[in-house]
Specification:
This protein has 280 residues and is an alpha/beta fold. The chain has a single domain, classed as NADP-dependent oxidoreductase domain (TIM Barrel, Alpha-Beta Barrel), CATH 3.20.20.100. Helix content is 39%, strand content 13%. The strands form 2 sheets. It has an 8-stranded parallel sheet. The longest helix is centred in the first third of the chain and has 15 residues, at 57-71. The mean pLDDT is 97.
């Protein structure tokens, strides 16, 4: 059971990753972004997730540098993730993309680097590049995002290094049970993006009733449900009150009955593209 904000999951390569972190999807460069990262670190967050396509790695890097200094922690205390975008899914281009992300972030290494989307005919070459970076010791872990089972099976036919993470859209309307079971069997950790369904679940009557029972917010109920399902989660927020509230989920546990009731909300409904049918 995850007991606090610094609790970690040991990935299949032995690296420890926090169960809970801050996502910065679509947060624009500027003071709001820098302050959000600093606020998260100040309040005990130790995992920050960004991506090249978010176009905010410089601000994230600034927030990390200032946040570490103010919190009196070192780089080794943080877990930083970024992702290679679809346009760079070749061998040489993925290598260059990694260096570019490091430069923008102002870091010497990443804890986790992901292939952002499974672009057909391209992700294997990109994976080969990630394996090279990993074997060189320049990244602590490598993984994927938005991969279905068949993408993972195809990748692992030729892969020398197994992905540690599959970061996917995951929330009570999209529980991805089959994918989760497959990843668990393969020792690939599932991680949730858009855990709150971009806010679309916050007025749900069933979730609201459960939240009232525990004297928690709907967001806290969903994030607790993630953790009790053994899914790493990275909710996005730029407001300090929300950043603190999102992480205040370690003083209660959902009952088996409530977990089942939340599971039953599944409709296989996405707010993002289907990984089998996307166009970027």
């Amino acid at each position: 059971m995850v007991k606090n904000l610094q609790d970690t999951k040991t990935l299949n390569n032995g690296v420890k990753m926090p169960w809970f972190g801050l996502g910065v999807f679509k947060v624009e460069e500027g003071p709001e972004l820098v302050n959000a990262v600093k606020t998260a670190i100040k309040n005990g967050y130790r995992s920050i997730d960004t991506a090249a396509i978010y176009q905010n790695e410089e601000g994230v890097g600034q927030g990390i540098a200032e946040g570490m200094k103010e919190a009196g922690i070192s780089r080794g205390d943080l877990f930083v993730t970024s992702k290679v975008w679809n346009a760079d899914l070749g061998y040489e281009s993925a290598l260059s993309a990694y260096d570019a992300s490091l430069k923008r972030l102002g870091l010497d290494y990443l804890d986790l680097y992901l292939i952002h989307w499974p672009v057909k005919g391209k992700y294997k070459e990109a994976w080969r590049a990630l394996e090279t970076i990993y074997k060189q010791g320049r990244v602590k872990s490598i993984g994927v995002s938005n991969f279905h089972i068949h993408h993972l099976e195809d990748l692992m036919q030729d892969a020398e290094v197994k992905p540690v993470i599959n970061q996917v859209e995951y929330h009570p309307r999209l529980t991805q049970k089959e994918l989760h079971s497959y990843c668990r069997a393969q020792s690939i950790q599932l991680e949730a993006w858009s855990p709150l369904m971009q806010g679309q679940l916050l007025d749900n009557e069933i979730l609201s009733a459960i939240a009232k029972k525990y004297n928690k917010s709907v967001a806290q109920i969903i994030l607790r449900w993630d953790l009790q399902n053994e899914v790493i989660t990275i909710p996005k927020s730029t407001k300090e009150r929300r950043i603190v509230e999102n992480a205040s989920i370690f003083d209660f546990s959902l009952s088996d009955e409530d977990m089942t009731e939340i599971d039953a909300l599944n409709e296989n409904l996405r707010v993002g593209p289907d990984p089998d049918n996307f166009d970027f």
